[in-house]
Amino acid sequence: MTEWAPGYILPNISVDSPFESSHYALVSCNDARTLNIRRAHAEFDTFIKRFHDEFGHQLAPAILLVKDNEPDLIGIEQASGFRDAVAISCVCKARALRLVHPHSRYFQFSSWFDFHPWITSTNYVGIVGNSPAFRDSNIASNFHGHADANVPHAEVSAHDADNTLLVALLGSWDRRFISHPNAWRSIALFRSLNMAYAASQLPSGPDMTHYALGRSVGLWISAFEILAHPGENGVVGYRNIYDLLNNVEWRDPNLTAPTHDAYAGKNKTAPNSLPCWIYGDLFRARNDFMHGNPVALDRLVVQSSGQNLYNFAAPLYRACLTAFLGLKKYGPPAQSNDSIASDISWRVDFNHDQTLIERALMRVFKPVHP
Q: Model pTM?
């Protein structure tokens, strides 16, 4: 029987059903596997019960479990890679939904999925804390854990994730960390996801300014460039991202028509598709903010619509992942009744998720308050 061990605690979320890969699972603190550990180890049970919000209400944090029979797959890069896949699948969908149906949504920032610095010790005799700022140990009965006050505690469900993307990313996790650990594409993908996780953090706290959004745009551009980088001795530029975007099987012809004056090098533009125009404008904004150029308060605002370009970075990144991962409406030919049913389910999910992303990108020229 395979044993599971607790890894990181995610105090900002609860989960109603597990997110799982071959070796990691993001689960509820009342998941059967978690309950077995809590019954066997009183210190861990005490630790889990001592998370509260800022008003003292007890929280039920999510727990990242790992199979403990393969120590080579227990590490921060593997754990973060799994977490990043789940988080970005939720962030891209939430951002797209926010554009299509304009109102605030849970999970539009990756901050909901942050790891807590305190975890249970491997022998369950205490708890240990670790971050770039400190390292310490203590006992669970002394602990008072809190969620991040900048994001409300929320329950994440399977329908909160872009299922088409999540399935592909979790399959890619196996290739990155098990079957092809040295393959450049796999390394680039998970480096890019980790940068996208940083880019989609809350840009700021109460001290929010347009400079904070510009900083986040800079991180998003880095996530795009890492994904499209050709590898050793190669050079990445805006054209690599344009190539990815133009390789997406867009359903809406308005997203393929070369009718927009997209960035084409310093002080130049050339006719290209709408997704390329969005990326080109984000790229130029990144240069302005990160290079210290003068920037107006409305630098990121599309003048014709009032839309903020920052909001389009996540759905545009999802489009690049679509091309990078080769996501298409039709998967491999079905070989059995079960695989036929799975194939139909894939097409339904693909069409739904792709349509949402396309509708979101098409909002760039639609007024914020029509």
A: 0.94
